[in-house]
Amino acid sequence: MRSNNKSADGHLPYKVFVHNLNRLYFAKRYLDQKMPDLIEKASFNALQLGMHEFWEDLKKQIIRMEEIFETIGEQPSDKNCNPIKAIVKDEFCLSEKKDLAILNDMDLIMYVQVLENINITTYGLLKMVAHRLNYNHIEQLMMECFDESVDNDELFELIANEHIK
Length: 165
What we know:
Helix 1 runs parallel beside helix 3 and helix 1 (12-41) packs antiparallel against helix 4 (101-132).
C-alpha cells in the first residue's frame, strides 16, 4: 500500500528518501551477515554483550525499513553505488590481528561508533524528509532507529571507558 499523499513520479523529496533508505538498508543487511564474525573478534565480555545488543537493534531497524518499503510501495534496490555499504565492508582492518587484545577491541568499538554516527546522520535526514512528505508513521519509525543508534553510540563509549580503566 502506497502512503497516502505523495507520488513517486518526479517528486524530489520522495526520490531523496528512497535513495537514502536503499543505501542504509543494504548496508544494514550486509552488516547483519557480518555480525557473528565481529562479535567473535571481541575479547572483552562487556564488548561482546554490547555487540549482541547492537545486532538486536540492527535486526529491528531492518524490519522497520522493510515495513517502510512496503508502506511506500517500493521494492528495495541495491543497483546504485553504495558508499555506506563500502564503509561497512572496509571494517577498519579488523581482520589484522593485533598483539594486544585491547587494540582489537578498540578498533572494533571505533568501527561500530563510526557506523552508528553514519546511522545517526542518515536517520536524521530520513526523518526530516519523512516529515516533509507527511509520512508520520515512517517519521516515527525513523525516530526509533535514530534513538537506538544514539543509545548504541553512547553504550560503546561507556564500554570503551570501562575497558581502558
